Amino acid sequence: MSRALWLPILCALLLAGCAGSRINAQWSDPQFAGQPQRGAKVLVACQAGEPTLRRICADRMAAKLAMLGAVPVLAPDSSDATEAVAPNEAALLQAARSAGAVALLRTQLSAEVVAVAPGPTIGIGVGGFGGSYRSGGGVGVGVSAPLGGAGPAETGYAATASLTDVASGRLMWSARASAPPSNAVDQQLSTLATLLLDAARQAGLFAA
To answer: What's the DSSP call for residue 76?
Structure first.
């Protein structure tokens, strides 16, 4: 196969491989291996610009925590837009202590990629004899034009999660994951929660 043929195929395969949901970076403190232990309470807090995203994020992270054996406790959600985007960590740690939680799981959501789907097009074909004019033959003409505006925008979200020890205030683990653009935001957040907390478990957190 000539280079002109396989190069576009290779590029398409590389783009497809990069388009999936994945962990971008991760860090953990080995001194906290096995923590928090099974049955321990973990305060769950999510940061996002929209209340719907915050609540879905918190629900998905809590559900995954429960599957790992922890007891999730949802942090109170603030109606203040500033606090919703950047809650105070000291206040969250205090809320965790009041709830009897041993760890704070804090997740920050951000729009990573916004893709605009192409709008519908209309095609017009005239003739069909190989696209060239020949004596006694015909002319092949193909025209493709957009019909209306562009399609709906789809957003791919990134999530940065951190797990903090409440007693000491020390960071135990942190990671960042991202998902490709889609209109299924609920599914994106479920996938990100699974990716992040599975990564934490594989890094040695959460005792079996």
So the answer is: P
Name which residue leads in pLDDT, 134 or 167: 167
First to last CA, the chain: 51
Between CA 179 and CA 170 the distance in angstroms is 28
DSSP labels, 144-162? EEE-SS---EEEEEEEEEE
Whether the Cβ atoms of residue 173 and residue 203 lie closer than 8 Å to each other: yes
Contact assessment for residue 70 and residue 101, using Cβ atoms and an 8 Å cutoff: no
Contact status, residue 50 vs residue 29, Cβ threshold 8 Å: no
Could you give the CA distance from residue 104 to residue 165 in angstroms, rounded to a whole number?
7
Phi, psi of 84, rounded to the nearest 5 degrees? -65, -35
Strands (E), 60-193: 71-74, 103-116, 121-126, 141-146, 153-165, 171-178
Which of the residue ranges 2-6, 16-20, 164-168 would you say has the lowest mean pLDDT? 2-6
Sheet containing 103-116: order of strands:
22-28, 171-178, 153-165, 103-116, 41-47, 71-74
Q: What is the pTM assigned to this prediction?
A: 0.73
CB proximity list for 171: less than 8 A, separation 6 or greater: 29, 162, 163, 164, 165
